[in-house]
Design goal:
Order of helices and strands: EEHEHEHHEEEEHEEHEEEEEHH
Radius of gyration: 22 Å
Number of helices: 8
Protein name: Reverse transcriptase domain-containing protein
Shape: globular
Strand order of the largest sheet: 3-9-10-4-11
Largest sheet: 5 strands, mixed
Low-confidence stretches: none
Distance between the termini: 40 Å
Organism: Euphydryas editha (Edith's checkerspot)
InterPro entries: DNA/RNA_pol_sf (IPR043502), RdDP_mobile_element (IPR052560), RT_dom (IPR000477)
Helix content: 25-40%
Pfam families: RVT_1 (PF00078)
Length: 284
């Protein structure tokens, strides 16, 4: 386990695990994934708004897609209410029974049998220094660090509910819902209807959202702000910008916060390289 920067060492949630998997299992996963991706593509199991761990569907395409939608609202002087939802321990909390139910209904029976064997009776232990815990059975989650883990999560969340008039964008466990209207209150009403459907879906499939870490942003060139919305009965915090897939999207898409943050990060990295340049070297 690796301690996260600035976290308390006595808290178990402060550590990021490095998962060690059997080599034979990794080879099998790579071979199986090629066939699995073909079946998923042919049957169109994963919808178009799902990005991540798919060919030609990486972060930049998803960001371009959402930014283009927001610019359309700017051009028509509308309000775009957006909710950026945070999912708690998404890969670790995948419900095995629910996942196998979806796999059985969407994939060929031989794929179901193989994946059931792959997920069933998995055990894990944790090593810290020289100490190793006892073996524990994994009742939920996809294997961390595995090749199949991300695609199985996409299959599990492929039926995320959509609502007319609301744009949905997902990148693995990063989920965004956006609604646009001439009136800010109506934009929030449309967004709230979508969040109500998502709330029921989360409860059905035992997925836990992190409401305090979720963010609501109003994208507009006008002065008003969309009224607050709720997820699981908890009001989502409102902000003037949101961090999404490594980019900071502010209210008017000026990119000021993003440029400032990246320049600061680059400056820190440059300072770390001074020892390589020599003390008499001047950097502009």
């Amino acid at each position: 386990m690796i301690l996260k920067p600035g976290k308390a060492p006595e808290e178990t949630s402060s550590y990021r695990p490095i998962s060690l998997l059997p080599v034979f299992s990794k080879v099998m996963e790579i071979l199986f994934l090629k066939r699995l991706n073909t079946v998923i593509a042919e049957n169109k199991i994963i919808p178009e708004h799902h990005f991540g761990f798919r060919k030609n569907n990486d972060t930049i395409e998803q960001v371009h897609r959402l930014v283009e939608e927001i610019h359309k609202a700017f051009e028509s002087r509308k309000y775009y209410g957006a909710a950026f939802l945070a999912i708690s321990q998404a890969f670790d909390r995948v419900w095995h029974i629910g996942l196998m139910y979806k796999i059985k209904n969407q994939l060929p029976i031989n794929y179901y049998i193989l994946l059931k064997s792959y997920l069933a009776d998995r055990f894990f232990c944790v090593r810290q220094g020289e100490e190793i815990t006892k073996l524990h059975r994994a009742h939920a989650g996809v294997p961390q660090g595995s090749v199949l883990g991300p695609i199985l999560y996409l299959v599990f969340t492929a039926d995320l509910p959509t609502t007319d008039g609301v744009v949905i964008g997902t990148f693995t466990d990063d989920t965004t819902a956006l609604s646009t209207h001439d009136e800010p209150a109506q934009a929030s009403n449309m967004l709230q209807r979508s969040l109500n459907s998502i709330t029921e879906w989360l409860a059905t499939w035992r997925i836990k959202a992190n409401e305090p870490k979720s963010v609501q942003v109003t994208f507009t060139t006008r002065g008003d702000t969309c009224p607050p919305v709720k997820l699981n009965g908890v009001q989502i915090p409102q902000a003037n910008e949101a961090r999404y897939l490594g980019l900071y999207l502010d209210r008017r898409l000026t990119w000021r916060k993003h440029v400032f943050t990246k320049r600061k990060a680059l400056g820190i990295q440059l300072i770390k390289m001074y020892w390589m340049l020599g003390k008499n070297h001047s950097c502009q």
